[in-house]
Amino acid sequence: TRRKGAFQASTLSDLVDLIGFAHWLGYACVGLVLSLVATTTVMSVQDRIKEYAVLQTIGVRPLTTLRLVLTESTLLCLIGGLSGTLLAMIALSLGGFAIGAEGATIAFRPTLNLAASGCLVSLVVGVIAGIAPAIQAATVPIVNALRQLKARFGGDNRQAEDRRSSNSLPFRRAASIRPGMAVFTQDGYDIVARVD
User: So what's the pLDDT on residue 26?
Assistant: First the structure.
């Protein structure tokens, strides 16, 4: 038989190992949330790719589009993180959760440090998850996105496409609307673009 002190030390060591495993499980959950947010943001950008193309045609710079998508992703994660952290703090305060065995008890108590780290993790996850979709939205080819829009809403006329593709110039300058801006016509679209 072992002495009581040695048994309690062994039990405490097992509890610490269990808590260490919970840390790794928490990291896995953060990774899962990161992939879910990234997937959701990518799908959101895919659904609005035409809108980003239209924004670029009216003069919105790609860096601004990148910031828009990053801000959206970060705000969504931050709101979700703040809500989850607040609910977790309330549950820990009211629940009195603890883990123990053989006279050794470890209580879970909420702290401001814990709340701040939860909010920081949600902020970082939002930024990381939004990088790839933001780059995709900022680099969308305008003409291809507008062609998809036409195919979706205006039908697809192959003969008209063949006639248009036979033109020697892809763009025609139609008119100047203000200094630095011009209207181009391609594939039946009037595209407002910045002329540098």
Answer: 80
